[in-house]
Amino acid sequence: MGNHRAGGKITRSHTTLIDHAARIVDAIHDRPEVTKISLGMISNIGRGKPGIKFLPITGGFKLVVRGNISKQELFVYTKDPEVTRMEVLSAIR
């Protein structure tokens, strides 16, 4: 790990990102429709296949990002969830 992001639209005192989450945050951080990105804690979950899950919340969506051995939750607040969702999907391809 060792991916740190802070400032701008990123909130929380926790600033470390797993690799898969770092790619997503970098892709959407400067998007004009994104108003805030809240970084969640990292959980070790053992080996597995990377993936992403979108869960709707008021004002955006919660992302559960799974890497090779860990997962992280991100809360993305956006004025246009569908455009932001498409950006997230293209960042992980």
Quantity of strands, as a count = 7
Q: What characteristic shape results from the CA principal axes? A: globular
Major beta sheet, strand line-up:
2-4-7-6-5
Classify the oligomer. single chain
Q: How are helices and strands ordered from N to C?
A: EEEHEEEEH
Beta-strand residue fraction: 35-45%
The average pLDDT is: 88
The number of helical runs is: 2
Q: In angstroms, what separates the terminal alpha carbons? A: 20 Å
The main β sheet shows up as: 5 strands, mixed
Rg is 12 Å
**Alpha-beta content class:** alpha+beta
Percent of residues in helical segments? 10-25%
Number of domains: 1
Poorly predicted regions: none
Describe the structure.
It is a single chain. The protein is α+β, with helices and mostly antiparallel strands and 93 residues long. It has one domain (3-91). Helix content is 23%, strand content 43%. It contains 2 helices and 7 strands; from the N terminus they run βββαββββα. The strands form 2 sheets. Strands 2-4-7-6-5 form a 5-stranded mixed sheet. A two-stranded antiparallel sheet has the order 1-3. Strand 6 and strand 7 (70-78) form a beta hairpin. Helix 1 (19-28) crosses helix 2. The two termini are 20 Å apart. The model has no long low-confidence stretch (mean pLDDT 88).
